[in-house]
UniProtKB/TrEMBL annotation:
InterPro entries: HATPase_C_sf (IPR036890), HATPase_dom (IPR003594), His_kinase_dom (IPR005467), Sensor_HK_TwoCompSys (IPR050482), Sig_transdc_His_kin-like_C (IPR004358), Sig_transdc_His_kin_sub3_dim/P (IPR011712), Sig_transdc_His_kinase_ChrS (IPR017205). Its EC number is 2.7.13.3. This is Oxygen sensor histidine kinase NreB. It is an enzyme of class 2 (transferase). Member of the two-component regulatory system NreB/NreC involved in the control of dissimilatory nitrate/nitrite reduction in response to oxygen. NreB functions as a direct oxygen sensor histidine kinase which is autophosphorylated, in the absence of oxygen, probably at the conserved histidine residue, and transfers its phosphate group probably to a conserved aspartate residue of NreC. NreB/NreC activates the expression of the nitrate (narGHJI) and nitrite (nir) reductase operons, as well as the putative nitrate transporter gene narT.
Amino acid sequence: MGSVDSTRSGAGQPVWTRAITGWHIVFWVLLVMTVGLSFTGDLSGTRQLMYLGTAVVLGIAYQFIGLPAVRSRRKLPSYAYRLVLIAALMMLIGLYPQSVFLMFIASAQIWLLCEDVREGIGLSLLLVVGVGTAQLWSAGWGWSAFWSILPWMLVSLVVSLLFGIWIEKVITQSQQRAELIEQLESARDELAEAHHSAGVMAERERMAREIHDTLAQGMTSIVMLSQAASAELARGGTSGTAARLAAIEDTARENLAEARALVAAFTPVALSEATLTEVLRRQAERFAAETGVDVKVALDLADEEVTALPQAQQVVLLRSAQEALANVRKHAAATQVLITLGLSADGVWIEIRDDGTGFTPGAESGGFGLNAMRGRVEESGGSVQVESAPGRGTRVQVLVPALQEDA
């Protein structure tokens, strides 16, 4: 019967070690009571001294061998103490048969120090036979005494075995509970670590999308405007250079503001200063100025309904439009783009349609844009539909389910 390690509450001690104080008190109370009762018997002076000496030896063996063995579970001290215990009990009961009630604590200690059931059965049998032999010796070795002691020996053996099996089951169950608690705590720690890792990855993905949808696109605009201004200066023209430099400055300022808002996890700067409709129209005008593409914005719902949309929806719709325009800039070679914002029974939607070169949906792509858009929309519970074919343009529709503003 192995020791049972607890988890944190038991300071890593075996279950019976944590209750050893109670067994310690019971042992000393029974031993002192037995010694006290021996003085009321008819023991001679020599026998009384032998009795006291045996009790002292048993007490010393328990204090310095048995008790440490219970705590350490070391085999050699465990066997040594139990052999001393059985021998001492045989002597005490042989000298003073009324000491037989020490069998209670002796049986408990034998089982508490056992490593398995077979060991407990063997030592319990040795204890009962030894105590029965001591009683026979005290009674004069007669057959009548044997037959009178035999039922008591059998009952003691049965009680000892039942008691030991009960202890074994309690310890086994305690061990199983301790292992289960350890597994649960380990699983909890692993789950917490997984949640932490997932949170870190989710935050990284969010930051990547935000940077891609704001700073990266702003930098792309700055690069294109700079290249156009440089090309014009190289040709000797200066009429559009000032306008392009002003556009570069405006884009850089907006990028700086977006970077600050991103660090502070605020709403996009554009939405904090204007409605979604106004922001979309500004984006369309700037895109047209930078690329020469004809961009139009159409509303299938009233301005008041757009303004009433929850902020989270507006952010998703704006970022989706920005990403779609960025894809048009990079890949489509389009001449016209139509951005439509509408409301349906399923929620609010935005559609970006261009007449560009198109592509084959589902084909392998090294780009980040559509995946980022899809991830952002799906996080809000929405969906993204992409329809395209080579030479036939592209249609991207984002649907975000209806949300309620927090009270």
